[in-house]
Structures are given as structure tokens and as C-alpha cells.
Design brief:
- With 119 residues, the protein is an alpha+beta fold.
- It contains five helices and three strands, in the order ααβαααββ.
- The protein has a three-stranded antiparallel beta sheet with strand order 1-3-2, with no helix packed on it.
């Protein structure tokens, strides 16, 4: 918010608007030009840029996944249970990167999305 000069009461675009804007940037091959210009502006302000990763973790209310202990153990090891591969619809409903957590005494699925970009 500080970077963009926004206040808590500021009007901001919704997720759909941002998605459409990003898709148009990609369609017109402007994403790289935009980031290059941002890099130039930051360098002019003596901001040191480093390559890295931004991770966004969001709490999402979802139905409880009914995995058995063996399935959970495989997921924690980074593998996918063999039975799930045989049922593509079941596999599509499972997020093996998400983890359960509690917030305000309720269980939530913590979904992590990341955006990687070098400087």
C-alpha cells in the first residue's frame, strides 16, 4: 500500500480486473518491458534489486479432504497416491501443496501461490 501510495479507504481494482490487465499485458508482450522499466526506476532511486521469490499464502474455506494416513504420508513426502492418478477427477480436487492450519479456532486450508522473477 505504501509503495503504491494507497490508503485503507482507497479504491482498488478487484482480482478479475487485475487478471484481465495481466492477460492483456501478456497478449501484447508488454510484461517484460514493464518490469524492465520498473527496474530502471528503482535503480534510479538507488534501490538494490536481487533475484528472489514472493510467496502469497491465503486462507481458503474448503471441504475437509478425507485422506487416509498413508495418503497424507505420501503427500508430505511430495508424492501423489497411485489411486489418485487412476481417477483424474479426484486428483483435480486435491491440492497437494496446501496445508491445514487453524485460525480463530477454525480449520482452514492454507494455499500457497508463488511468483518468481529474477532482477
Amino acid at each position: 500500500m505504501r509503495f503504491l501510495g494507497l490508503s485503507l479507504a482507497a479504491s482498488v481494482p478487484d482480482a478479475k480486473t487485475m487478471w484481465v490487465f495481466r492477460e492483456e499485458l501478456k497478449e501484447h508482450k508488454l510484461t517484460e518491458k514493464l518490469f524492465n522499466r520498473l527496474d530502471e526506476c528503482l535503480r534510479a532511486l538507488n534501490v538494490e534489486l536481487k533475484s528472489g521469490q514472493i510467496v502469497d499464502a491465503t486462507f481458503v474455506t474448503v471441504p475437509i479432504q478425507r485422506n487416509n494416513r498413508e495418503e497424507n504420508a505420501l503427500i508430505k513426502e511430495g508424492a501423489i497416491p497411485i489411486d489418485w492418478r487412476k481417477e483424474p477427477h479426484k486428483l483435480a480436487q486435491k491440492d497437494t501443496d496446501a496445508r491445514w492450519t487453524k485460525k480463530e479456532w477454525r480449520k482452514h486450508l492454507r494455499v500457497q501461490g508463488s511468483c518468481q522473477r529474477g532482477s
